[in-house]
Amino acid sequence: MTDASIKPLTTEPTPRSFSSRRDTLKKMRGGEDLEWDIIVIGGGITGAGVLREATRRGYRALLLEQNDFSWGTSSRSSKMIHGGLRYLAAGDIALTKQSLRERERLLQEAPGLVDRITFYFTLGKGLFPGRFALSAILAIYDFIAGIRDHRYRNNRFLADRFAGLKTDHLKGACAYSDAMVDDSRLVLRVLDESIGAGATALNYTKVSQLLIENNRVCGVVLDDPDSETALQLRAPVVINATGAWADRLRNSVNPEKRVRPLRGSHLVIPRHLMPVDDVLTSLHPSDKRGVYIYPWEGATVIGTTDLDHDEDLDIEASISAQEMAYLISAFNHQFPQQQLQASDVLSTWAGVRPVIGSEKSKDPSKERRDHAVWSDNGLITVSGGKLTTFRLIALDVLAAALDKLPRAKPFSSDSIFSTPECNADQLLATDPAWAQRLLGRYGNAAIHLLTQASDDEHQRIGETDFCLAECRWALRHEAVEHLDDLLLRRTRLGMLLADGGEIIFPQLETLCTAELGWSNEQWTAEVSRYQSIWRRYYSLPHQ
Ligand SMILES: Cc1cc2nc3c(=O)[nH]c(=O)nc-3n(C[C@H](O)[C@H](O)[C@H](O)COP(=O)(O)OP(=O)(O)OC[C@H]3O[C@@H](n4cnc5c(N)ncnc54)[C@H](O)[C@@H]3O)c2cc1C
């Protein structure tokens, strides 16, 4: 591809960047920007969604994330934008309807970031659900979404679609569609839209405690290692969108514990070991839970598990040896000739679901997955829910804050994402599918991303769809503080390339030096930090 193939269509002179964390904190220490309309704590999809809806209404809004944006659950989900078949099966039509509508909306607003994919739900002989029960559920599912996509597929069809699939215990499958997303890029795109509308979002900025006066929450206190006096920020509305961590801040105003952290883990294997283009769902032979095998960024993923997570939430979640064995046995049961082994695994990831829990004796998979909003002494806490419904969750949160806010500015469109000024063909006629991917992830900035990089940086890296131009862009504009931000969240190269992406370290060192001014020592320290994170939390389980 040459620069000549990239048409400079945009009129935006300089692309927007995330605020510089250091400059913003320096200003705050100097007494500026200490008062806001809304402070959102937590930089996952829930916090990002609230920020987006708040700025649309003209509020001065600040988001604070203790680690990197999307570092929590929102970079570690199964990455499905779905209506939730199991909500429907459980009779929760309202939740299914909301989720399906949001799915269709996201598909329309952000193609290339959210894309439709076919699911094949296998029908085990003598197992529930059978063909007719599942077809009936899927007919309702499609009806609510306003599409007609479900159909029955026999074993011969399945064997063609999934090479090596054992079918003698199956009675075919029911096919239907849902969608996939890159969860971390979804968070970044929503944050980027919010910043475009005037918001400020800071990563690596922890709220150490709430500011409480006369028994009312009126702001936050920041953990600020560069200052002797704690930085206090004030706002009439403080939103605790800290997901699995939500009880912690909430417990300063209400001792109730409501979040039940449930861990789900995934394995990433090279595509050549199991090249799939659709999602295969089958029931695990030991407990009959649904396990997915699906394509992701040029690799194949097996997931997920659903277990109580009793570990310290400040330590990143990681897969256990038992979960790994469980997922490998699910795979080998369906693909016995493959005999997948731990040594085949490229990487792993685990996330903690912030489930609004009942008692621990309840089967984790039977817990409801919707969100809850609580208002305590001026603190609004939100937890639970899913990626799919983040916009609706944000609207519920703002509704709870309404009486403390000035009148909202009128707005004409409720779209989450602004429409790019060019289409995929105009961006890159030689590869419109890849161009669409860039437009979905970066919106209008896709054009700048390509023009700000050299031709060689447009080449895809290995079997992935990522390129070095995206790395340069992230380093320049997306608040990268550490190498792990770049390899695990801005891109997923650390999970898709062997050994956490060591092969591209030389090119990344050049980029980090040029864009962030890292010295040799800093680069070495970042590599060492990254490798210890990768080995401990994204590789094979520790024994
Ligand atoms: C295994 C798994 C699979 C899933 N699959 C799907 C799926 O396929 N589809 C779907 O729709 N949903 C899925 N979900 C659910 C979805 O991922 C979550 O509901 C969603 O990501 C939660 O987002 P959140 O913003 O509420 O929490 P998080 O993303 O965890 O964000 C909370 C943030 O708050 C920060 N924080 C905590 N304390 C502080 C503090 N004191 N100061 C500043 N920041 C703080 C944390 O660092 C964290 O980044 C899945 C979840 C899991 C675990």
Outline the structure in words.
With 543 residues, the protein is an alpha+beta fold. The chain folds into three domains: 34-79 and 182-258 and 357-418, FAD/NAD(P)-binding domain; 114-179 and 260-355, 2-Layer Sandwich (D-Amino Acid Oxidase, Chain A, domain 2), CATH 3.30.9; 452-537, no CATH class. It has 18 helices and 19 strands. The strands form three sheets. Strands 3, 4, 5, 6, 12, 13, 14, 15, 16 and 17 form a ten-stranded mixed sheet that branches. Strands 7-2-1-11-19-18 form a six-stranded mixed sheet. 47% of the residues are buried.
Topology:
Elements: H1 21-29, E1 38-41, H2 45-56, E2 61-64, E3 80-81, H3 85-89, H4 93-109, E4 114-124, H5 131-145, E5 151-153, H6 155-161, E6 170-181, H7 183-196, E7 200-202, E8 207-213, E9 216-222, E10 231-234, E11 237-240, H8 246-250, E12 259-270, E13 279-283, E14 290-296, E15 299-303, E16 307-308, H9 321-334, E17 347-356, E18 371-376, E19 379-384, H10 390-401, H11 424-427, H12 432-442, H13 445-451, H14 468-477, H15 483-490, H16 493-496, H17 505-516, H18 520-537
Parallel strand pairs: 1-2, 1-11, 2-7, 4-13, 11-19
Antiparallel strand pairs: 3-6, 4-6, 5-6, 8-9, 9-10, 12-15, 12-16, 12-17, 13-14, 14-15, 18-19
Helix pairs in contact: 2-7, 2-10, 12-13, 14-17
The structure holds flavin-adenine dinucleotide.
Flavin-adenine dinucleotide is lined by residues 41-47, 64-67, 71-74, 76-80, 82, 206-207, 241-245, 249, 264, 304, 351-354, 385-388.
